[in-house]
Amino acid sequence: MLGYRPGTYLMPLKIPVTNMEWPGLCNPSVFLDWDVMRLVIRNVNYILHNSIDPYKCWSSWGPVHYLIPQWDSHLKTRNWLMVYSDGCKDHKLIDTSTLDKEPQWDFVGLEDVRLVRWDGKLLAIGVRRDDNTDGKGRMEVSEIDESGKELSRFKIEVPWESYCEKNWVPIIDMPWHFMRTSNPVCIVKINPNHIRDGLVEAEKVIEKDWYDISGVPGIYNAPWQGGTLFRGSSQVIPYKDDMHIALVHTCELYFNEMKRKVAKYLHHFVVWDKDWNIYKISPAFSFNDHHIEFSNGMAYKDGRFYIPFALQDNFSYMLEVSEKDMDEIINGTFNGSERVDFLPNGSEYMMIGNFNNSEQHALWCMNNGYLGEAYCRFWRLWELSGKYPVSPETQNRYLLGVMRSCGWGIRDNEVYNVISLLEERCCDNPEILAMIAQYFDNAGKLGLARTWLTRAMKVYDEDHIFIYITKDEFKKIKNNIEKNDFQLLPVNEYKQIERVL
Fold first, then answer.
1. pTM for this structure?
2. Do 291 and 52 touch, CB atoms closer than 8 A?
């Protein structure tokens, strides 16, 4: 049973870590399936990096980039099905093994799944891009059972020219209808009886003119914004007085002065009348004052809206909003700083003025295997620390946390910038040099590990006061590295994940 809470509330969405090679839990979707609140969470094999300052590129890839596993060139997705009841319950990995084929492109798996039940079938609907060599994206519909077993699948083709069709959202009370774009409104329909060779063609059935958004508060002021498309985030669900409502997103995409891509998401609620004219658009808002946020679902039950969302493809929350608060959000009169009980507009994530509490949370995430979240939290603490009276020793701990959270197997060139920062700041600190050595030892690069350990021993003396690790931990790192024989490991044996934490 979902517990009763007045007002608006935020709940972390976590499942036990089963494999640290899948560090991100993101882009959740929720669906009220009769009286069961079903939840699906995307699980990815990478960490998404995003810098606060779009002009500071800590990587050659820019302020937004993927931290890819050392042994893989693919960005992979798998999905977990569960029940939401004051947290995640009875989680099961959606088993697609019977129908999967060898991937032909770099993005692998069914991405950004939304749940719906049409004609008695529980459907997981997302975009797939791995079944062709060009990465062309098309919406795919998978029937699954309550245990997470995939029973069938088909793809939706379109009669118009398009490279990537994604973020079509189901209209839950109109079987086989999707909101392709929210502004201008474009609703498409498929006929499940016309599937041939795993394909069915969509047709546009409702199209509306562009709705003027110039008066909507918070809209990005980018020159192209007047022609942008609001795209679905959540499913479209019934709303009061024969209307419908959905959560949508806009994304400001631009290139910084170094020609690197920058992205920032904002969100709106859109309400349509019974004839699918836009009735109202809420002011733009951010869930967590974070650049990369994404939601895949929304449900309504007993006077409350349930809206799951993810931060930076790495960790997720469920936002529960009372009907009264939703009305105020849509009208732009909601004061979240007074109402949100658990996570008021990002303060818990960013922990302004409470760095110690946030650092402890980041450490807990790392020690319990939530490495994507640990990375995000440590990196954000480091980025924010320069604006507040945080000691250099504490700042070094944040950088060490970033480095350690990547130690499960991220390609080294994505971490070298952090190591360079540590070296620049702490070239005479033996314990930090030893921890860098331990990072390379964990990665199976014993030659580099010994090089850094040698540097650590050159600056070590018995009078050194340890503040980052204990003297015994320092000696343990030294002994672990020294007792191993250097050898080149096959790529598939670089996964020494059990030695990370």
1. 0.90
2. yes
Residue with tokens 């994206």: 137
pLDDT in tens, 234-250: 999 999 989 999 999 98
Burial of 448 (0-12, 13-18, 19+ CB in 10 A): middle
Alpha-carbon torsion, ordered 82, 83, 88, 92, to 10 deg = -20
Higher-scoring residue by pLDDT: 370, 341:
370
Q: Report yes or no: 483 and 6 within 8 Å, Cβ to Cβ.
A: no
Phi, psi of 328 (to 5 degrees): -75, -35
pLDDT interval class at 178 (50, 70, 90)? very high
pLDDT greater at residue 442 or residue 44: 44
CA 125 to CA 155: how far, in whole Å? Answer: 10
Q: What is the pLDDT of residues 294-319, one digit of tens each?
A: 999 999 999 999 999 998 899 999 99
Taking CA atoms, 471 is separated from 92, 401, 479, in Å, by 43, 19, 12
- Give the amino acid at 362: A
Closest CA to 109 of 83, 89, 131, 92: 131
Report how far residue 353's alpha carbon sits from residue 389's, in angstroms, rounded to the nearest whole number.
10
64, 50 contact by CB (below 8 A): yes
**Cis bond upstream, residue 63 (ω within 30):** no
| 429 Cβ neighbours under 8 A, 6+ residues apart | 396, 459, 468
CATH number of 9-350: 2.115.10.20
Residue 421's nearest CA partner among 439, 437, 436, 443 is 436
134: phi then psi, degrees, rounded to nearest 5 = -105, -5
* pLDDT at residue 94, rounded to an integer: 98
Please list the residues that pair with 201 across neighbouring strands. Answer: 157
